[in-house]
Protein: TetR/AcrR family transcriptional regulator
Amino acid sequence: MAQTSTPEEPARPAPDPRRRSERARKAILAAAGELLGEVGYARLTMEAIAARARVGKQTIYRWWPTKAAVVFDVFTELTGGTAGEPLPDTGDLDADLRTVLHAIVDEYADPLMDRVNRAFIAEMQTDPELARSVADRLLLPNVRAFQDRLLAAREAGQLDAGTDPALAVDLLLAPVQQRWLMRSGELTHPYVDALVDTVLRALGPRG
Structure:
């Protein structure tokens, strides 16, 4: 009897390690963000992150040497950018500030971002080393980005020549941060718009 040949099954493509690694990275960051909001920074452990993300602890250490490094990247992932990224400069200072502050308000309104931020800020009050790291790697670069944009506006004649960019940044950011931190009022786009209007009227060119 003649043997019939069976068609060979097409070879399955090999798993893409880059795709698998990206899935693991995102799972780790998501797990760290959830746990930070649940247990706080002090009680957060690499073991707990690995268990929540369903990866081996060595997988986490492949990318991050410490839990602080993981949490820094949680912030970056949540905000969708990098610390110190230049502010938009369309030539319209009012519109550029509204765009950035609207985005900040939207981040604060996100439940996960809110939990992560509050847990991190609470831990910074008792951990000076962590506070310095956050300031150096996150807060100060972002403040400098605001200062650079306001300095460019001053040089373009859109702000009074005597405007101090550092003080101007405080006028813009402090009310937003206080409203969020103290839950002292609604933090909305209309509030931000009114804040930008007030600050720019106060700092506008004189004469």
The chain has two domains: 19-67, 82-203. The CA atoms of residues 16 and 200 lie 52 Å apart. The chain has nine helices and no strands.
